[in-house]
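Lecture notes, structural biology module. Today: joint structure prediction for complexes of two components.
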Amino acid sequence: MTTEPPMTSPAAFEAIGLTRSYDLEGVSVDALRGVDLRIDQGEFVAILGPSGSGKSTLMHLLGCLDRPTSGILRVGGVDVATLDDTRLAELRNQTIGFVFQSFHLLARTPALDNVALPLVYRGVTRSERRARAEAALKAVGLGHRLGHRPSQMSGGEQQRVAIARALVGDPQVVLADEPTGNLDTRNGEEVMNLLERLNADSGVAVVLVTHEPDVAARARRQIHVRDGLIELDSRSRTAPAGDATELDSRSRTAPAGDVTEGDAG
Amino acid sequence: MRTAEALRMALEALRVNRLRSTLTMLGVIIGVLAVVILVAIGTGAKNAVEKEIAGLGSNIILVVPGQVGLGAAPTQSRLDLTDVAYVRRVVGDPSKVTVAVNSGESVRVGRNEVFATLTGTDENMQNIFDRPLRRGRYMTATDVDTRRRVTVLGSEVAGKLFGDVDPIGRQVTIAGVRFRVIGIYESVGSTFGVARDQEVHVPVTTAQRLIGLPRINGIAVGASGPDEIESLQHKVVAALDARYPDEQFSAVTQTQLLGTIGTVLSMLTGVLAAIAGISLLVGGVGVSNIMLVSVRERTKEIGLRKALGARQRDVLWQFLIEAVLLTTIGGLIGILLGVGGALLIQALSPVPAAITWWSIALAFGVSVGVGVFFGVAPARRAGRLDPVVALRSE
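The predicted structure, tokenised, for the full assembly:
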């Protein structure tokens, strides 16, 4: 295991001239064409864009699942170009929590073990893993669902298990790829409330990828991606405080109690 | 990720896909089972033959006219009792040389009649061959010199002719001539298909008169120790060759018989093991196949694990351990069934089966090796999956 990234790192993500091109049957396709971006720790950001805009590619790059073709990407202050695949996996494990549209839970594995999975790759002992996974599940209001398998849970519950899994390793950032895409309005709402609360309470940065303006509006900052470029960033880099006061107050209108009691039935 | 963790994961994966795991293991189980049982049978056969040869007695040299071996033409013996006397002089110790003249004859007591091997021999037979008596006495020099019509019966002949009656002192009719029973041999089984319990021993002189030929079939010489066998063998053959320059003589020793037959049976065992090994190999291919299917089926899971921080080697290790676990568990089950099967065969059939440690160790080692060999390719494929592509797969 590598050491923790330096705590003094100024930005969760810092991208300079980021490009990513794919070679599709000999034809080079540019998915990202030079993205400059800085996301600070503790931010709540939505990345918006139509399909094919490059937002998923950007998300994969930010999540260290993929490498840029050119440009610099620093995650927690570490230039990913300096890391080999093993170090990159360790960086992922230490600093990033993923939430996916289709939950991606291990189907036949109980919630507790699903949540504990990231810690397996960190070499944490079984008893500690279980304790931390239990705490994470309680934090998302699923303390009563520890032994349930995904098939025994509703979609909203499954996504909350996934959020618990994203949080169990104490990441700096949670990357959520269309987290409400497979949920009905009510469950989607609850998942968003949960993400907001986690962002507010624990200071973990949340980066949301979505094509739904409603969902994106819940974030304090919106980044619009189109044709592989950032078309619009609701917060200019010179004014980091942003115009999120209204959204801030909105997130507080959703009490935490709602989330825990949400769709327990 | 620690090995214990990978092991737990692999066990879990096998448990979840119980039916598929079992079917995959079946290939390995059958392969290992076949190796253990076939090697046990091959080894058992070899042991049995070796025991038969050893049961003859120790340090025996058999001298026969002509050549010994498959494809050698049967040779009409021109040896007679003077040659035996000659060999006795060559060897130096007359009590260590005996003679055999054989003929198939019917033996009758009242209405009971059996077909037996009549063997004319002499008072030195028991010094060379391991032929304990159950009752009565061996023939003596006087019996041989005076052509007495006395006989020592093999245990089976005695049983068939006399049943529960004690045959000692009673009369039997061999080829129409009456003999007095002086002894019964212990049961010694058969050697090379020669049922020695069906022999009827009479003095060689009496046998020659009965058959009507003054010939003998062979001479047996007992060496005083294993070291002496080879020199004595050459000495006797050389002496006979010198006496009859136009003829050829052969001498066979137990060691040679053991060597030849042992080699043949070891080869046979090896061939059987190799055939069984092929089925083990096929089982391995099955494991490889299933692991590839499993990797493809679980592509998304692999992508997820990678996203959550699994390194390439973590994923590789997980799938490799799964494959090795499949073949190892299969191997262990195969060994258990194989040992059980071999014991069953031994208990329920006349086929001797001897379980050997090397075959168990080999089968186990090969099944673990098969898991590693056939698991590496799928595991590497899993480890190298691109997490983005893997997560997107359906």
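Point to remember: The beta strands of chain A are 11-24, 27-40, 44-48, 70-75, 78-79, 96-99, 173-177, 205-210, 221-226, 229-233.
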